[in-house]
TrEMBL record:
It catalyses: [GlcNAc-(1->4)-Mur2Ac(oyl-L-Ala-gamma-D-Glu-L-Lys-D-Ala-D-Ala)](n)-di-trans,octa-cis-undecaprenyl diphosphate + beta-D-GlcNAc-(1->4)-Mur2Ac(oyl-L-Ala-gamma-D-Glu-L-Lys-D-Ala-D-Ala)-di-trans,octa-cis-undecaprenyl diphosphate = [GlcNAc-(1->4)-Mur2Ac(oyl-L-Ala-gamma-D-Glu-L-Lys-D-Ala-D-Ala)](n+1)-di-trans,octa-cis-undecaprenyl diphosphate + di-trans,octa-cis-undecaprenyl diphosphate + H(+). This is Probable peptidoglycan glycosyltransferase FtsW. GO terms for cellular component: cell division site; plasma membrane. The keyword Transmembrane applies. It is found in: Membrane. Belongs to the SEDS family. FtsW subfamily. It is an enzyme of class 2 (transferase).
Length: 408
C-alpha cells in the first residue's frame, strides 16, 4: 500500500483551515476555564439543581389548579418544561461567559434598546395574564422586563463610565432619565415590583460611581415621596400595601405561603407530601420558596439563602481588585438585580414584604425568567474573568502572557 501523499499547496489555493480553527477553539476554551470564576459557576449550578427539585415538588399543585375539564395537565408538566428551559438557560449562560468585555457591552446596549422598545409596545401588543400586561406574544411569548434587567445594568455602567472621558458630562442625570423612563413603562403594565428593583439597582450603581452624599439624600427623599404619591394615585401600589397591612386576597395568599413554609419544620414533610402547597396560587413561581420549606424544611431554606448570599459576596470579593470602571459598575448592577430579586421573593414568602409577583432567580419555573437570569450570570462570569498569573504572581504583562502561551 502506498503512503499517503503530503498536502502540497498550489498557487491561489488556500490550505484547509478547519484544524487550525479547532485548535484555536480549544485554546480559547482552556483559557476560559483558567480565567472563569469556577466557584461562582459552582454556586449557580447548585442553585439550579435545587430549583429542578423544587419545581418537581411544586408542579403537581400548579398543574392540578390549572387543569380543567377539557385540558388535563400531567402532575409533572411544569417540571419537564422547567428542565427544557434550564438546558436553554445553561447554553445562554456559558455562551455569554465566553464574551469579551467589549462584546458584552455592545450586546447589552443593543439588547437594552430592543427591550425598552418592547416595553413601549407592551400596552399595545401585550397579552394579559392575571390582570397585568407584561408579556409579548410573537409566536413565542416573552417578558421584556426580564431581559431588560441584565441589559439595564450594562446601560447604567456604560453611561456612568463616560465620566472618565469628560468629567463634566451629566452622567448621573442621564441615568436618572433612563431609570425614570423604565420605571414609568413598568408601572403602566402594572409591575411595581420590578420598577422598585430597577430604582434600587440605579441607586446602588450611582453610589458606587461616586454620586455625592447630598444627591444620595435627595434621591432617598424623592423615592419616599414617589412611594407616597404612588399609594395615593396608583391603584396597584395602594392595593398591595393595603393588602399587606390590613388583609385582603393578596394578604391571604402571603399568609398561606408563610404557613406552608413554616409547616414543614426543620426537615420538611418530604417530597410530594406537602398539603398546604396545594392551595397556593403560584406554587411553582412566586411561592416556590414556601414549597421548599414545607417539603424540605427550614434547613433547606437556610441553605438556599446562604447560596444567594455566597453568590453576592463572591462577586463583591471578585470586584475588589477590579480596575476597569465599566466592568466594576456593570457587575455590581447585575449582582444587585439578581440578589435583590431573590431576597424580595424570600421576604414576601416570609410575610415581611408586600406581594410583588417576582420569581425566585434560578429556582422558580419560567421561560423568560430562567433564560434572563442565566444571561445575567453569564455576563457576570464574563465581566469577572481574571488572568490568574497577573493577579497571583505579580508578573509583568509580557511575562504573564509568555507563561500562558507555554501552557497552551
Amino acid at each position: 500500500m502506498s503512503a499517503a501523499r503530503p498536502y502540497i499547496p498550489r498557487p491561489g489555493v488556500r490550505a484547509p483551515a478547519a484544524p487550525r480553527f479547532r485548535q484555536n477553539r480549544k485554546a480559547e476554551l482552556r483559557i476560559w476555564w483558567r480565567e472563569v470564576d469556577r466557584v461562582l459557576l459552582g454556586l449557580v449550578l447548585a442553585l439550579m439543581v435545587i430549583g429542578s427539585v423544587a419545581v418537581a415538588a411544586a408542579s403537581p399543585a400548579s398543574a392540578r389548579r390549572l387543569s380543567s375539564s377539557s385540558v388535563r395537565l400531567d402532575d409533572l408538566y411544569f417540571y419537564w418544561a422547567h428542565l427544557r428551559w434550564q438546558v436553554v438557560g445553561l447554553a445562554v449562560m456559558l455562551g455569554a461567559s465566553l464574551l469579551t468585555r467589549d462584546t458584552a457591552r455592545r450586546g447589552g446596549i443593543i439588547l437594552g434598546a430592543a427591550m425598552i422598545a418592547a416595553l413601549v409596545l407592551v400596552p399595545v401588543l401585550g397579552s394579559e395574564v392575571n390582570g397585568a400586561k407584561r408579556w409579548i406574544d410573537l409566536g413565542i411569548r416573552f417578558q421584556p422586563s426580564e431581559f431588560l434587567k441584565p441589559a439595564y445594568a450594562i446601560l447604567l455602567a456604560w453611561i456612568l463610565s463616560w465620566k472618565l472621558r469628560d468629567p463634566d458630562l451629566p452622567v448621573i442625570p442621564a441615568t436618572m432619565g433612563l431609570m425614570g423612563l423604565v420605571g414609568l413603562l413598568l408601572m403602566m403594565q402594572p409591575n411595581l415590583g420590578d420598577a422598585m428593583l430597577f430604582v434600587g439597582a440605579w441607586l446602588a450603581v450611582a453610589m458606587l460611581a461616586g454620586m455625592p452624599m447630598q444627591r444620595i439624600m435627595m434621591a432617598g427623599g424623592a423615592g419616599m415621596a414617589a412611594l407616597a404619591l404612588a399609594y395615593v394615585f396608583y391603584d396597584n401600589a395602594r392595593h398591595r400595601i393595603d393588602s399587606f397591612i390590613g388583609g385582603g386576597t393578596a394578604f391571604d395568599q402571603v399568609d398561606l405561603a408563610s404557613k406552608a413554609l413554616l409547616g414543614g419544620g426543620w426537615t420538611g414533610a418530604g417530597l410530594w407530601l406537602g398539603r398546604r402547597k396545594m392551595q397556593l396560587p403560584e406554587a411553582h413561581t412566586d411561592y416556590i420558596f414556601s414549597v421548599i420549606g414545607e417539603e424540605f424544611g427550614l434547613l433547606m431554606c437556610g441553605l438556599v439563602v446562604l447560596l444567594y448570599l455566597a453568590i453576592v459576596l463572591r462577586v463583591i470579593v471578585r470586584l475588589l481588585e477590579e480596575e476597569n470602571v465599566f466592568a466594576l459598575l456593570a457587575a455590581a448592577g447585575l449582582v444587585v438585580l439578581f440578589g435583590g430579586q431573590a431576597f424580595i421573593n424570600i421576604l414576601v414568602n416570609l410575610q415581611l414584604f408586600p406581594s410583588k409577583g417576582m420569581t425566585l432567580p434560578l429556582i422558580s419555573y419560567g421561560g423568560s425568567s430562567t433564560i434572563a437570569q442565566c444571561l445575567t450570570i453569564g455576563l457576570l462570569l464574563a465581566l469577572t474573568r481574571r488572568n490568574p498569573f497577573l493577579s497571583r504572581d505579580g508578573l509583568g504583562l509580557k511575562a504573564a502572557l509568555a507563561r500562558q502561551e507555554k501552557l497552551r
